[in-house]
Amino acid sequence: VKTVGFVPPSKYFSISPDNKVMLYFKYLSSLGNPMLVLRDLIKNQDLYNWPLNSSASEVCDFAGWSPDGISAYCLYKKNNLAKLKIFNTKTHQYSVIASASNAVDAKYYPEHSIFLIGAKDGVEMIDTANNEKRQIVLASENTIVKNVFLTSDGARVLYTETLADGCAYDDKIYSINIDSSDQKELIQDKSARLVSLSPDATVMLFKSPDKDNNKIEHYFVADVNGEHTAELYTTNASVFDDQFIGWFMDEPVSKE
Fold it and tell me: By the number of CB atoms within 10 A of the CB, which of 3, 5, 27, 145 ranks highest?
């Protein structure tokens, strides 16, 4: 995408599907006070800014655009609060269209209008098209849910259950239909924490602690059913999951 030499100051930005406008956060002082800005990429100039330090200018992760390409979704997460915001680039209107107060993890899938929430007590979803909220599954006793993902067809949810005390030795990855049926534990021979799901929802990346040294973690790929596991690499120190920014796939996972 050509931005006429303009480089946004942080990773928190998004470009419209027609490549004509950009939303980005500008920091106006040494204290890092943020302001959300709308930029015209054709004219190479800023068009509008939402008020400095306002709720609209809270730094958030952009999560896609509306089907007409006019409005951008942005997901704000802090202290177990998740808010899904929408910004109209034509009228400059801003609103919160969904929120959850007990969120450990949250993701938005605009193509399905599903706001998916990994909560302390299970997996929840909000259908933003109908403003309907419901529980998909309850967490097992003394566990919380992390790392929730929706498959590309919108049919199933993958998630990790981890012990509430933070121990990583008995993490479990589950898959369940979005209608709450057909729950399955995917990796049964080791502790496993889901890290990412490929864009086509055929491959998952997960990690598992070494059996003899808890400072070592092994990273694996497997198909979305938890089969045909292959180890990718080992790390000597914990790697933060959000360092993984995307997928490159030229071959399917081996089924040997």
Answer: 145
- Other CB atoms within 10 A of residue 238 CB: 13
- Record the tokens describing residue 10, joined without a space: 């942080």
- DSSP letters for 218-256: EEEEEETTS-S-EEEEEESSPPPGGG------SSPPP--
Q: At residue 207, what is the residue type?
A: K
Closest residue by Cα to residue 223 from 123, 156, 136: 156
Q: What is the pTM of this model?
A: 0.85
67 CA to centre of own chain = 19
Write the single-letter amino acid at 208.
S
Q: What is the tens place of the pLDDT at every residue in 38-63?
A: 999 999 999 999 998 889 999 999 99
pLDDT tens readout for residues 117-172: 998 889 999 999 999 999 999 988 888 888 999 999 999 999 999 886 655 567 89
Q: Are 203 and 181 in contact (CB under 8 A)?
A: no
